[in-house]
């Protein structure tokens, strides 16, 4: 251990970075995609002499156990001298890790959709918050499908808070939530949900399920839809290509989701990104949002270190919040007050191949409003504050 630690810090040309995603457990598929994306960025950084340093990745697997993140993060910071952690998927695990990061003066790079109502000097938020995912989604689905959703979520912070905001939006529009149900994180016992949906006939199903719970629900609902072609769609803020992988073609198709990234985005930035990934990993691989998000986090971290000339968290944070970064989703800026990134949200419809056809995109990037202060004020003045354009 001492020899490895000495090697990591024997030269300023080596920067140790912790990669902390669960690659086993209830949301393992998403975690594996995130690790692959982060390591794809590491491979690019370490082969580019312009950076002047290499990344030494310290990869740990908490196994989907929220209580394991703090210990592994502490070990990475104390024993491996990591000053930056790329990681955590769930808000439960992020909030368990956050005190460790704050106490040790480190910086967490969090790159997944979350429920908002948080801003820490020790976190760079590179995932969208509700005004960048939930609000655009409901502005699309409520007038098209109806105002009586069935809400189902994983039984922890993400599920609770996103469901709460969705209920407030629905009721403010004159609608009513017909049911609000939760299942334990990782549970695959979902048949009762499909039965209740059959009975209550909602206008759409809003799913906040995570990992294998989401996969099991989509598969079970797909079996029901075989004999019910007019069954309402599943809509979500966190559904990605990796969640549909391995499902039957019938179960995969017909779901509406919002995301800052889709594999099929026809932008110059995404085309260049996919070409680089194909050159490294082979053609034909579908790039998921978790892969891209972790890749983006590692890339922005490395460019911030290069510009700062140090991996000191304060110096890196100052750089990261003071300039734009070229990313697969376009130029990204990070608010120096909240440390949240501004994003351009998209809406996609899933198909039998497990990919998403683009439905609509925001005309411009939307600044993060993690506490929904500005967003709720705008909604009082205008029911649909996010201008979206139809993709033809």
Automatic annotation (TrEMBL):
Gene3D superfamilies: 3.40.50.2300. This is Transporter substrate-binding protein. It comes from Ferranicluibacter rubi.
